[in-house]
TrEMBL record:
InterPro entries noted in UniProt: Thioredoxin-like_fold, Thioredoxin-like_sf, Thioredoxin_CS, Thioredoxin_domain, Thioredoxin_ResA/DsbE_sf
Coiled coil: 164-191
Taxonomic lineage from the root: Bacteria, Pseudomonadati, Bacteroidota, Flavobacteriia, Flavobacteriales
Chief place of localization: other
PANTHER family: THIOL:DISULFIDE INTERCHANGE PROTEIN DSBE (PTHR42852:SF6)
Subcellular location field: Cell envelope
Name assigned to this protein: TlpA family protein disulfide reductase
Keywords, comma-separated and alphabetical: Coiled coil, Cytochrome c-type biogenesis, Disulfide bond, Redox-active center
PROSITE patterns assigned to the protein according to its UniProt record, in alphabetical order: THIOREDOXIN_1, THIOREDOXIN_2
Record-annotated Thioredoxin domain positions: 325-469
Amino acid sequence: MMDMVINKFGKNIFSILLIIFVVINIACQKNNKEKTSVENAMGLQKENDSIHATINVEFIDTGVFALNTLINQRSFSINIPSPKSIKKKSKQLSLVKPSVFESYRLVKNKTVVKRYFVFKEDTLSFKFCRDCINSYSGNAKNNILNILINDNNVFAVQTPNNIINYIEEQRKNYEKNVREVQKMANTYNNAEQGFIIDYLTLYFYNKIFNIDFSKVNDPKTIQQLDFYYKEIFDNIKLLDKLNTILNKNILYNLLRFTSFKNKNPDLLECLHFLDSKLYQTEALDGFLLDYMESFYNNLSDKDLITIKKYIRKRSLKNVFDRKTKKISENVFSSKLQDVDSNEALFQEVLLVKATESLVLIDLWATWCVPCLNEMPAWNKSEQKYKGKIKFVKISIDNNFEKWYNFLSSKNDHNFNYIITNSNHPFIKEFKISTIPRYMLLNKNHEIISDDFTRPSDSRFSEQIEKYLQ
């Protein structure tokens, strides 16, 4: 999964952007129903307004297939795992906008990026194999972006020798691609042609602003960038027309340019320089929420006030408020089941000993392969921090017997609980839609992070010890 992170200080841009946009986080998503609506937790519109997409994968080799995009400007990855080869799997999605999904794979130690359009009722078909030159086997209509664009440097900041020439080259490529699309009336209707051109426009804007501004010192270059800077704001609604990772890339790069122009490295402080039209977009909401969630513990009170000021959507304000409060009484008074089928109040489950200053919750399921892969690291950490941290595992399996048998086979019954109801207050309050997921609380049950570092991550110990008292 692509998890977008925005660095507050804007230093070491090249490596930061790789971290920001190319952290591949393999996660499982619960898919017990034949049809999965991926935006339920984010306010999916009526069914009649939805766009339906089917993802088919033929697994020649075993592994996890992933496609990445944004939903309501939040990073989203559709993951389809298969422990067996020569197996076909399918997943259905409901979306509210035309979407561009991206896939990333290593070929001879180089990242290859592919882009696939979903317009209305579309099926994307793939072959998952290590040696496949082309993994896409579906309708050519949805593959148009890979014909027009051959670019794997999606996130790396560009450092052209001559920026004016670079911008002109990007503009000519953009105009050429637009003409190609306009010739395809027999393949795409007017609306579909419009969506493709919208993406090409976003791609063009992102390319010309995804440069190292520290190398910009020519007044003509700045004047040229100013021209396109204004043009983006005159066309700001583009940022809300498609589900695509380019929306956040562009917003981040606009803030970088604003920071450069105003000689202020603090991106949040640069928000007030941006045109007020930006505040009409979902893109700003998603950007700010990601910024807060990624760097919450390093933000000042002033930063938090700034973020809350600019977040417009009530749903996002609720998430903000949740980050700065204890777990609600509604969740505290809800019940979990233990391995003996006894009910336990959530508040009792979280009680700590006198020596324990933190509570770490593991959200998992028996069907989630990445969750199971985390268990050795979880067990090792549990031993390392025994007496200092309370480790609690909560499964979202809907089959109690399967969950119980799995734990029995591992002889692991301590602090294990299950939630089989998808409408449970805890699931709803924290919008649990992807696993594995870890939550860190202090001994007063205040939320430190509702999406904490995985135990297998090399940074886990460093992160956890910052909060140990």
